[in-house]
């Protein structure tokens, strides 16, 4: 039986080219495309803080909620705290869900538990002004490249 490993330089180059081309074709064929969620729901929560300390404390506390959402809400596609550039005391929380029901159902359960866990701490931070805006994606444009 002949040895399956190519011994000549020419055969080794052809083998390497074949593997490289095969890998490139396989990668192109099986490239994971971003899943489009029909009628994805977006909630933007605008927050206005009284001072930088209140914002920092609130943001730190909120990171616990973000971790919970990531672990337990598979249909929450994005959940991001975004700092304002023009006014450092303003921020938004950008929330994106596969459906509105994912926000109204599982997320509300987690939110109520988080609010209960931090109720006393939040009371000590003082009032944070909130404005909520709901949107439905139109799929005109793109979310990422």
Structure notes:
There is one protein chain. This protein is an alpha+beta fold and 145 residues long. 46% of the residues lie in helices and 22% in strands. It has 4 helices and 4 strands. A 4-stranded antiparallel β-sheet has the order 2-3-1-4, covered by helices on one side. A hairpin with a 6-residue loop joins strand 2 (76-83) and strand 3. Helix 2 (52-72) crosses helix 3 (100-117). The longest helix is centred in the first third of the chain and has 21 residues, at 9-29. The N and C termini lie far apart (51 Å).
Helix residue percentage:
40-55%
- The helix tally amounts to 4
Distance between the termini: 51 Å
Beta-strand percentage range: 15-25%
Report the biggest beta sheet as strand number plus sense, adding barrel if it closes.
4 strands, antiparallel
Q: Could you give the order of the helices and strands?
A: HEHEEHHE
Radius of gyration, in angstroms, nearest whole number: 24 Å
Structural class given helices, strands, pairing? alpha+beta
Q: How many strands?
A: 4
Low-pLDDT sequence parts: none
Query: Strand order across the biggest sheet?
Result: 2-3-1-4
Provide a quick synopsis of the model:
Helices cover 46% and strands 22% of the residues.
Fold topology:
Elements: H1 9-29, E1 41-48, H2 52-72, E2 76-83, E3 90-97, H3 100-117, H4 119-125, E4 129-136
What labels would you give this structure?
four-stranded antiparallel β-sheet; 4 strands; 145 residues; 22% strand; alpha+beta
